[in-house]
Amino acid sequence: MNEDKHMLLDVRHLSVGFESYNARLERATFQAIADLSVTLSAGDILAVVGSSGSGKSLLAHAVMGILPGNARTGGEMFYRGEAMTAETKARLRGREIAFIPQSVAFLDPLMRVDSQVCGVSGKGQYAKMREAFAHFGLKPGVEKLYPFQLSGGMARRVLLSTAYVADAELIIADEPTPGLDLEIALEALKDFRVMADHGKAVLLITHDIDLALRVADTISIFYDGRVVETAAVSSFSGDGEGLKHPYSRALFRALPQNGFHLDRCSRCGSSSATWVVDEREMRCGCHA
Amino acid sequence: MLEVKNISFRYGGGPWILKDVSLSVAEGERVAILGPSGYGKSTLAKVMAGYERPASGAVLWNGAPLPAREYCPVQLIYQHPEKALNPRWKMEKSLYEAGPLDSEVLNEMGIRSIWYGRWPAELSGGELQRFCVARVMRPGTRLLIADEMTTMLDALNQAHIWNFVLNYAKRHRMGIVAITHNPALAERVATRIIRIPELNHVEVDRSNL
Q1: What are the helix (H) ranges across A82-123?
Q2: How is domain B26-50+68-190 classified at the CATH fold level?
Q3: How far is CA A74 from the centre of its chain?
Q4: Is there a contact between A271 and B110 if contact means CB atoms under 8 Å apart?
Q5: With the CA atoms of A214, A217, A222 and A227 taken in that order, what torsion angle do they form, in degrees rounded to the nearest 10?
Q6: Chain B partners of A252 at a C-beta cutoff of 8 Å?
Q7: Chain A within 8 Å of B118 (Cβ-Cβ)?
Q8: Which of A33, A169, B128, B142 could form a disulfide with A16 if both were Cys (CB 3.0 to 4.6 A apart)?
């Protein structure tokens, strides 16, 4: 299927919609992801960057096969060149593919940390879990705690340990650093770099382009349900002239260290933060 | 001007979050408080805006305590707009809670009237934060405390909101205290930068953050 044997994950034209019924019992579909294609090879960190609430988390849920029942998906997904079905996803998750969700809320509140970290691999993994805890700087004794007893940073490191213990090839991290300051966030991201340098692939889903620029190899800019551009981190430099899509360029130039720049509509003066973005361009809504 | 005089604060009988913090912000001045998590930046914001009372020390506005029963000249914007809006109020009610607003403010913030009838859960974080900022852009606001105001937003929305707030502040001589972990942002928005570890004399154990 795939020429590149290092290619781990290949997502082609993924779409995710949700079916629901309105007050008149008419069926309606809400399209959260319209068209999303990403590829990821061993040793690489790919960051999918999009604003909060843009639906990018659903990519992680789709790959893991943990979308809710009313979700309708389209497109194709391959893992090591093999088409992914609900069965293969169930086999891969927790073993080949580890998911680091965005908050401690994804830990089972009634289960001690150790059972959750060992996960589907079972208690045979205890030595490995201690190794992971030492690696991520968690003190002995943490394994007997319940999630509510963990601080935000400890919870994140517990979640990272799950990926370490599973020895997963593909790590999907969804907004792993919210509310952490830069120093601690970079520490967290350094762990991903180490994992990638050991031949793992990391899919990082985040709203923070600043952070993505510091750790990822490749960045996909996600907007309104589609990837508008995928570019190497090196393209995000200078005035953004190496970027193809005006939205990626605008995002990059709006960073405080890159000029804090905004464009204004020549007709109505509205700022580019309120403009319409489509596959090829971004423009003010007043241009009919 | 705002004066914070030797304040200390803790939640209940817990550890001290703020110890002997003093600073003052002159009329129309733009100050950034910069520093990592765990140093009590957000607690300091709440104390400065009058949401929490210090255990000792005082917060004074032009020499007197902050008014408790009228529009407060010190207004606080949170990191999470969804927590600052009543989920059972439609957007219009939240927007005009403190009275009418200048239509220019609404235009420049890009607030669309079709959002008025929506619930907070139906708008994005960037859209909600524009409402939260717009509703305090009125003459009564003399000092804006922006606590990680744009941390959860994309770079374009961040630049949009800050550009507007800085312009408004210059035109109306409104002061700003920007609380942030981002040095580049602090450089952009403030004329004076204070590092929180130098301000707050409390021991911080960062191993458990």
Answers
A1: 86-92, 113-118
A2: Rossmann fold (3.40.50)
A3: 19
A4: yes
A5: 160
A6: 155
A7: no
A8: A33
Q: Which residues of B143-180 are buried (b: 16+ CB within 10 A; e: fewer)?
A: bbbbbbbbbbbbbbbbbbbbbbbbebbeeeebbbbbbb
Whether the pTM exceeds 0.80: the reply is yes
Classify the C-alpha dihedral B25-A182-A274-A260 as positive or negative. positive
Contacts of B39 (CB under 8 A, 6+ apart): B196, B197, B200, B202, B204
The two three-digit tokens of residue B25, written as one number: 């912000």
According to DSSP, residue B139 is labeled T
Is domain A7-96+168-283 classified as CATH 3.40.50.300? Answer: yes
Q: Render pLDDT for A174-190 as a digit per residue (tens, 0 to 9).
A: 887 765 666 667 777 88
Q: Among the residues of A101-172, which ranges form H helices?
A: 113-118, 126-135, 152-166
- Distance between CA atoms of A142 and A154, rounded to whole angstroms? 9
Candidates A154, A180, A207; nearest CB to B154? A207
Domain residue ranges of chain B, discontinuous segments joined by +: 26-50+68-190
Mean pLDDT of A142-167: 83
How does DSSP classify residue B152? T
